[in-house]
Structures are given as C-alpha cells and as structure tokens.
Amino acid sequence: MQNPTQALLSPDHAAKIRAQIRPDQATPSAQVQGSLGADEGMHTTHYSIVDAQGNAVSVTYTLNFFFGNAKIAGDTGFFLNDEMDDFTSKPGVPNAFGLVQGSTNAVAPGKRPLSSMAPTIVLKDGQLFMVTGSPGGSTIISTVLESILNVVDFGMNMQQAVDAPRLHHQWLPDEVSVEPGYLTPQSQAALTAMGYTFKERSPWGADEAILRDPATGVLEGANDDRRPAGLAEGY
Q1: What is the rounded distance in angstroms from the CA atom of residue 73 to the CA atom of residue 92?
Q2: Which Gene3D superfamilies match (predicted)?
Q3: How far apart are CA 84 and CA 96, in angstroms?
Q4: Is-contact 178 165, C-beta < 8 A?
C-alpha cells in the first residue's frame, strides 16, 4: 500500500481540512467526513456475480458458526470451520441453529453433512434470469425462496424482493418466525386462530441478488442492508 504523503501535506488539502473547522461551534464527530468502512462480519458470506458476457456465479461460503471452531490453522491467520455441527451429533437434540435431525445425518468418514447453503442461479427459457443467495444458517433456504417468489409471483423488482419482510419455519421449534411488518394484525390473528404460533424476530439473512431483464439484458443488483458489509456494484 502506498501512502499519499505529498497529497496529505499539500497546501490545498490543508485548506480543505481547515475549512471544516468551525471557529464558533464544536463539530460533532459524526459530521466529520471519512469512515472506517463497514465492519467485517463474523459469519457466512454470499456474493452473486454476472459479467459482461452473461456468465453467472453464485457463491456462499462459511465457517458455520461465529469464528468456526475458534482454532487458527497454524500461522495462516484463518479460522477452521465447525461444519461438524451440521451433522447430527445426537438424534433428537438441536444443533446450534435449532435444527433437530436423525441418525441418517450422523458423522461418518468421507461424508458431507446436510447444509442449508443455497447459492442459486435461476434460468428463464434457458437464459439467465436471476442470481441469488444468502447467509443465515437454517433460514437460508426460506430467504432465497422468498426472494425468488417475490420477483416471479409478486412482480417485485430485485431490491423490493430483497427488502421485503420474511418468514421462516424449520419444523422444530413448532413456530413461525416473522420479521416485523410481515403480517397485518388481522392476518396474524386469523392464522393464530387456526393454530399457528408466531414469533417476531429481528431481521435475518443478507440476500445479495441480481435480476436480469429478459427483454433488454439490463442487470439490477440488490444489496440487503440487514447486514452492513454488502453492496451492489456495476460495471
């Protein structure tokens, strides 16, 4: 990395800094330009890419739970994962994400555990239509499905589909998780009367998605601001 020493020491730069100083009033730090950037997350990451030739990539990668197994591989500087938790350690006992599984997913040599990761590429008439995916543990599958349904069935654009409130159900616990604003009070009351149990939770997931207009080929990228480190960027 090269430090812009000459620019930082130039009279023009000094004048710009000096102009920001208010001689008659203290300046709140929040108003001072510049930032440290978004915090890097401790959890699963997803990114979606489409290049100028229409090639698409959807990637979800993870350590599983926060900081994986909390062990650094020698002097490499990266943590080892704890994907063993995706296996069934004990039938009938929930894992870190509350999933209750059976003996079929038991640990065995050379075996892959079940995973909720769902990097997805959607085609329409054989042509690229949508690229999507999300972190979020056991909520990933419902998050990705809802982003697709919001576009295909409800006519939302990509950003609307990503921003829309979500729901999630994973068999056990026997409750429907909903984000604030997902249901009207009337709808929730009617469903509760049918026997559904709802639990409002803080927002989850971070769907990073791209929608391609089949008619024009124009790409629309959408960043999920439920987590602060993502962005949508074009070329």
Answers
A1: 32
A2: 3.60.20.40
A3: 11
A4: yes
Confidence (pLDDT) at 36: 60
Q: Token pair for residue 130?
A: 């949508």
**33 pLDDT tier (thresholds 50, 70, 90):** low
What's the rounded Cα separation, in Å, for the pair 1 and 4?
10
List residues with catalytic annotation.
44
Q: For residues 221 and 49, what is the distance between their CA atoms, to the nearest angstrom?
A: 9
Edge-to-edge strand list for the sheet holding 127-132: 120-124, 127-132, 209-212, 219-222
In Å, how far from its chain's centre is CA 6? 40
Nearest CA among 231, 235, 210, 206 for reference residue 221? 210
Q: Rounded to an integer, what distance in angstroms lies between the CA atom of residue 225 and that of residue 178?
A: 17
pLDDT of residue 176: 97
